[in-house]
Give the backbone structure.
Amino acid sequence: MSASAAEQIFTVPRFKKRSWATASLVLVDIFALELSLLLGCIVRHFLHSIFPIALNRPQYQGLALGVLVLPVAYGVLGLYPGYGRGSVERLRSRVYATFGIFLMLLIWNYTVSEGQWSRGVLVLTMIFALVLAPLLESPLRKALIRRGICGIPVVVLGAGTTGARVAKTLQKEPDLGFLLMGMLDDDPNKWGSTVQGVPVVGPLAAANRFAESAKMALVAIPRMERRRLADLVEKLPFPNVIVVPDLFGIQSLWITSRDMGGVLGLEVKKNLLVPANRVLKRALDFAIGVPAFLVSLPLIALFALYIRLTSSGSPFFIQEREGKNGSRIRIYKLRTMYSDAEEVLSEYLDAHPEEKENWLRFYKLRKDPRVLPGIGWFLRRYSLDELPQLWNVLRGDMSLVGPRPFPAYHLAGFPDSFRALRSSVMPGITGLWQVSARSDGDLEVQESEDTYYIRNWSVWLDVHIMLRTLIRVLAPNGAY
């Protein structure tokens, strides 16, 4: 196809921009913060019999105005509208802003307001704000982006391998708010085609046609000659340009650009190699694991008793699996299968050869004949069979978050390089692929998600995964 022919088929997609989209995010945060204050006062009121204090409505009118500083802080940190920032980065910014502003309110309380605000109300309001603000804002953001109302329209330059991976990633992560309008490439054979469902609408020179509609360009042509790339970036008519290098396979979070005397450098922070971070991760395991284990003990006892009464054999399943650095660990689970599960599986696969492909791809079956009827399906659907592994966490065999400790036959399906990578960290009760794909994720997805987690680890990523785990447990799609 010639350039002139491309001009004839070339059309600029329309973008439904709504000026109220960002304002709605701000209003939801304001509502969440004021609701947090109300709940803080209510909880503090119920604690009055234990810790007596006078709570008068007029004195908290000032605090109701004080919490409105938080949306300003969110805006300064780039959370409005927050395009291009992943959920983990947004979580970190929210926590930093919330702690910072409430520290300022506490100082204000003692230096200006003469201590009229209850410290308990301040702390409770902060805790509720940390939970309610993202809990209410996130689904609204998702809904607005899904409908094309909220987001930044972008054009991708380069429809090759790198451009295709960029398009696939952005479609997989809609929370980033990048709305793909089209792709440009100088290869005429690609004009009029689609890459990952995104139309390739013309050559690179047609970028000017997007000047009024797109606000950002993603340059995904890593093998372009250096001078030509610099000239292209300089001439692009967009206020924001992101150059995507061919660096797939290294971490993408917690990377900082460095100006080294006119030379661009990327500083990669390998967080898991920092001793203080490993201590912090272990402290987080104990801070959450100890109370979770104590609370779960009655449930574990109840389920174990039910399993023992309805199925012969031990109510617990104990298996040796691979831990950190290839060590052997014994993991504990509530038994959800028949005692002769392996024989049942072998007979089932022999009788249903069409299921062998799914088994070898996922190592799970939607209608698994090994699972105990009733209690087995219930425990697996809500992941309650994993509760005894909290003991593994306290013993130091596992972490709350990390790659799952798979059986030997499951590990055999992965390449040696990935097995070495995943054994470099402690296995976990939950992980990134569980909250993103759960049982629907095949070996390729499991390898991709676990690799991303290990290379991009941070305490914020762990907290993000644990929060998503709670949502997954309450809404167990993909669990079987």
Remarks:
- Residues 1-9 have pLDDT under 50 and may be disordered.
- The first strand starts at residue 152 and ends at 157.
- The two ends are 50 Å apart (CA to CA).
